Amino acid sequence: MGDMANSSVDFYPKSQRRELNHAGGFGCTLSELRSLMELRGAEAIQKVQETYTDVNGLCRRLKTSPTEGLSDNATDLEKRRQIYGQNFIPPKKPKTFLQLVWEALQDVTLIILEIAAIISLGLSFYAPPGEQSEAKKQDGAVAMEMQPLKSAEGGEMEEREKKKASVPKKEKSVLQGKLTKLAVQIGKAGLVMSAITVIILVLYFVIQTFVIDGKTWAAECTPVYVQYFVKFFIIGVTVLVVAVPEGLPLAVTISLAYSVKKMMKDNNLVRHLDACETMGNATAICSDKTGTLTTNRMTVVQTYMGDTHYKETPDPSNLTPKTLDLLVHAIAINSAYTTKILPPEKEGGLPRQVGNKTECALLGFVVDLRRDYQLVRDQTPEEKLYKVYTFNSVRKSMSTVTCMPDGGYRLFSKGASEIVLKKCTNILNSNGELRSFRPRDRDEMVKKVIEPMACDGLRTICIAYRDFPAGKEPEWDNENEIVIDLTCIAVVGIEDPVRPEVPEAINKCQRAGITVRMVTGDNINTARAIAAKCGIIQPGEDFLCLEGKEFNRRIRNEKGEIEQERLDKIWPKLRVLARSSPTDKHTLVKGIIDSTIGDQRQVVAVTGDGTNDGPALKKADVGFAMGIAGTDVAKEASDIILTDDNFSSIVKAVMWGRNVYDSISKFLQFQLTVNVVAVIVAFTGACITQDSPLKAVQMLWVNLIMDTFASLALATEPPTEALLLRKPYGRNKPLISRTMMKNILGHAVYQLTIIFTLLFVGEVFFDIDSGRNAPLHSPSSEHYTIIFNTFVMMQLFNEINARKIHGERNVFDGIFGNPIFCTIVLGTFGIQIVIVQFGGKPFSCSPLNAEQWLWCLFVGVGELVWGQVIASIPTSQLKCLKEAGHGPGKDEITDEEMAEDEEEIDHAERELRRGQILWFRGLNRIQTQIRVVKAFRSSLYEGLEKPDTKTSIHNFMTTPEFLINDYIHNIPLIDDTDVEESEAPPRRRFRASPPQSPNKNNNAIDSGIYLSTDVSKTPTSSSSPVSPLHSMETSL
């Protein structure tokens, strides 16, 4: 109903809603229901009692039933939609194209280019008196470059959270922050070089003309002098444009967008682009167990029945008929009738499990015993069930009462073995007869049966029954007096097999320097066994496996407050956190992120599937939601959705994240080499020859090669397993390593040597006319064309060198695995031939003969040879080399960047984490609805429940309490993660009443967040309704 209340605001104006409410004939208005849903706990109960007397009174006003729900009347349902709104999350309004354009133009690099473009465009329209401006128009295009918009792939179309009006802040990822800082530094250096170039050219011209030649400034010579000054200015702008790495934002966007597309094939649906590269720096992964590390296909593998411990499915002939019949009836009846075992979709496949996975395991056990559970259900249909005590996370059991032919009753019960066994006073022996079951017998069974099962990673469940004689009817509402004096039928051990690919995936993570931790609601013994099978814990290692209660005891002080110092003593060795609540998961994630005991801050990834996992998913650097088992709220809170719920897909995300980082580094290595050479050539050539050897249009082509084409070629390199053989770079790792700096400067030396040799003695070597000191507007020369062609050839072959950034020698390794790279290199070479041979005056080129082409190619291939020479020089010996491209320091984070969300980051935390606020993701980014966020905040220590679609009263089950329970069990229970997301009060059905159809309308509230008071803490309340609000939600 919370969703209904919210979504209706978007569809009906206030006046219309008011009229609809008054005309609808219902006793509750939309605003009343909305205010009611905002209340929690005792306040909500009091409000219902004061306003409506009880839940039934509210249901009468809404013309609905607390047991049957809404009718199937289409007219009535449409009327309710018009008054209360539709039950779905309203779609978020996407950003318009102009908004994307405006965001793209905010990039620092593009701002520099925009200024240069405006200046250059203005100069292109300048025409001195008596002169034609055509000759200058080609130079005027120096900075007119098209920059693609940042891609909106992977969920960036979604609106960012609302920032405070006084704090306009654009969120940046770690990589973007480093690139922005690097771009600004390079831009400043380019601006200085540009200014020096213009000043030197002007001074050289003035001194040469007016001092050495002794000329005077004549009025008739003014247009000529102005043309020279304009030419000098355009050369300066050319140096600036060449120096500015405008390809950086494009390379990041291409790399991230390409990775997002490819990650879809690896079952990673990326919702936020920056999550790609952040995952590459991950140092810790906190993973769920069920469905992520395991297959979530439960199977009964061990059984204790008739005084015998079976390590495999027993032969039905070895069981007494009475025991077998009781077991089949207990499993078939005392489970959700919506839980079924269906035939496999494909021949030879495994049977399909539909419904609760634990109950599917029990039904599969019945099938393995060659019995048909459906026949039992047909004999005892759901409407004939007399009483049902639904499962909840406190009593850890479920019970169902049926009527016997003699007028008596039989109760079937199943649940956590250590809980149900305490209620057993008898057990069936090998002959199917009752035998006394004393406390010491129970202790012996725990020691010899249950604990060995748990150590094998099995979840143990006890199945029992009790007969009530005909006569006086028991007081069914007193569950504690009903579910006692049970007779144990069997104890089964259920295994959730580890996914076969998970151990290898975890091994890869550990080799890659990533610590994997299991956070589960399972028993500590089961969790430890599964962790050992997965490889999370290894024999001989120093590790910790804790339960949630012990974890909280160790990290909290006498006042119950969490202390970071205590937490810092726990998390480095912690590998398994069992019997944990969503609060524990959030506490662990926050503690690891906030820790300062290491050299660098930990980068944490978290998996989650439930609504309660939302805070942990938002707190983590990268939140992974389960695409199959995950709730809508969990998916909204996540950065990446695992479409197959498989841990191995997380490892693939790590590979892609590291590949993004390396792809950007490869592009930087290539582009900065071009920048250094082009700026020095333009600066030196202009100062010595008063003209740049590379013309403006040629510079545009070179920029196109090193920006757009190089971005596509180097940013689309596929990831390899070698990426997982190194440790994470870390947040403070510079973009340009010392090895990369060695490559940049080494190749720049080679290229500058070739260019200057051709510039000053090239005409002698090729026996052609010199292009130096050519008059203004003189035709293009072969000399400068050879320089231009050689320069481009060296860039093409250096692009191959740039594929390796860690000093590898084989630069061709995997080159044919990237068809985009091969296509771009060959395509660029083909276009270069056309430009040189047929470009003519527009490109300032003169056609070259075959010999000249061969020499250009020979010099270009020399780049590959020179690359091997550079790789032979140990980087450790070059002490003078410095790294570049560090992230923003602590003092460089402005107050505006720190103001992420005042409601989530208090002053003390901001002071503690000034250098880390750039990456902080507050809980407020859950934008499904503002009320969802309020639900998280106001109920952090209350029960959080969300009903799924229910077609059976048996299917009302719960997730673990959001509270830290005082009663912690040591033996595997029914897995909390398998339990449905809500509870229903026990429902009594009398034989005299007509059959009631299952509630078919509860799916109307599937998308909502519902909270109920935790009244289950008192022993007498276990069978009473959880809260009046719960029944109201069911009826709505």
Structure notes:
Helices cover 46% and strands 10% of the residues. The termini are close together. The N terminus and C terminus are likely disordered. With 1036 residues, it is α/β, with parallel strands linked by helices. Strands 3, 4, 7, 8, 9, 10, 11, 12, 13 and 21 form a ten-stranded mixed β-sheet that branches.
Sheet with the most strands, sense and barrel status: 10 strands, mixed
Give the end-to-end Cα distance, rounded to a whole number of Å.
7 Å
Number of β-strand runs: 22
Mean pLDDT: 76
Main location: membrane
InterPro entries: ATP_Ca_trans_C, ATPase_P-typ_cation-transptr_C, ATPase_P-typ_cation-transptr_N, ATPase_P-typ_cyto_dom_N, ATPase_P-typ_P_site, ATPase_P-typ_TM_dom_sf, HAD-like_sf, HAD_sf
Function: Catalyzes the hydrolysis of ATP coupled with the transport of calcium.
GO cellular component, one term: glutamatergic synapse
What is this entry, summarized?
The chain is built from 36 helices and 22 strands.
What is the secondary structure topology, with strand pairs?
Blueprint (H helix, E strand, L loop, with lengths): L1 H6 L6 H11 L5 H9 L2 H12 L2 H7 L12 H11 L12 H8 L3 H17 L9 H4 L36 H39 L9 H22 L3 H19 L2 E3 L3 H7 L3 E4 L11 E7 L2 E3 L10 H13 L6 E3 L9 E3 L2 H12 L4 H7 L7 E3 L7 E7 L5 E8 H6 L1 E5 L5 E3 L2 H17 L3 E10 L10 H4 L3 E10 L6 H10 L3 E5 L4 H11 L9 E4 H8 L8 H7 L3 E5 L3 H13 L9 E5 L5 H6 L2 E5 L5 H6 L2 E3 L4 H43 L6 H20 L22 H29 L15 H20 L17 H20 L11 H22 L23 H4 L8 H6 L17 H9 L5 E2 L41 E2 L21 E2 L16 H8 L1
Parallel strand pairs: 2-14, 2-17, 10-13, 14-16, 15-16, 17-18, 18-19
Antiparallel strand pairs: 1-19, 3-4, 3-13, 5-6, 7-8, 7-21, 8-9, 9-12, 10-11, 12-13, 20-22
Helix pairs in contact: 2-6, 4-5, 5-36, 8-11, 10-11, 10-27, 11-27, 12-27, 12-28, 13-27, 14-15, 14-16, 27-28, 27-29, 28-30, 28-31, 29-30, 29-32, 30-31, 30-32
Subcellular location: Cell membrane; Membrane
GO molecular function: ATP binding; ATP hydrolysis activity; metal ion binding; P-type calcium transporter activity; PDZ domain binding
Main location: membrane
